[in-house]
UniProtKB/TrEMBL annotation:
Protein name: ATP synthase epsilon chain
Gene of this entry: atpC
Function of the protein: Produces ATP from ADP in the presence of a proton gradient across the membrane.
Annotated TM spans: none
UniProt cross-references to SUPFAM superfamilies, sorted A to Z: Epsilon subunit of F1F0-ATP synthase C-terminal domain, Epsilon subunit of F1F0-ATP synthase N-terminal domain
Subunit structure comment from the entry: F-type ATPases have 2 components, CF(1) - the catalytic core - and CF(0) - the membrane proton channel. CF(1) has five subunits: alpha(3), beta(3), gamma(1), delta(1), epsilon(1). CF(0) has three main subunits: a, b and c.
Domain ATP synthase F1 complex delta/epsilon subunit N-terminal per the UniProt entry, residue ranges: 3-81
GO cellular component: plasma membrane; proton-transporting ATP synthase complex
GO MF annotation: an example: ATP binding
Subcellular location: Cell membrane
Ranges for domain ATP synthase epsilon subunit C-terminal: 86-131
Gene source species: Roseimicrobium gellanilyticum
Protein topology in the membrane: Peripheral membrane protein
Amino acid sequence: MPLQLEIVTPEARIFSGEVDSVVLPGSDGELGILPHHVPLVTTLKPGELVYSQTGKSEYFAVGTGFVEVTGGRVSVLTDMAKGESEIDEKSVEDALKRAQERLESIKHDSATEEVAMVQAMIQKSMAQLHVKRRRKNV
């Protein structure tokens, strides 16, 4: 019995279909989901989401969000989901550099909200580079 996976961002439904398994970056670490998984709701942190479909794996860089597993369904609601082909490595490297420079300039301020926002940008950039570079080396 396959899983029904849906990956949704505020902009679009990124993927909807049957898969054999899903591995994603949950709040407490990497989470593997197979058919008949116990129901759960957890937060999603920036990282790599991998799903397998008839022996072939697909890789996505994902941002923050939520994951709900119920019965044979996995719903991923995230602020970012990009496949390897959608990631422009040079643009992401530039964004990462700008975010790191911004973090250095504000780290002594008491603007913890801004620090958290910049750190989230850095994590999303790192997730995208990880997916892009991993696929280059395969």
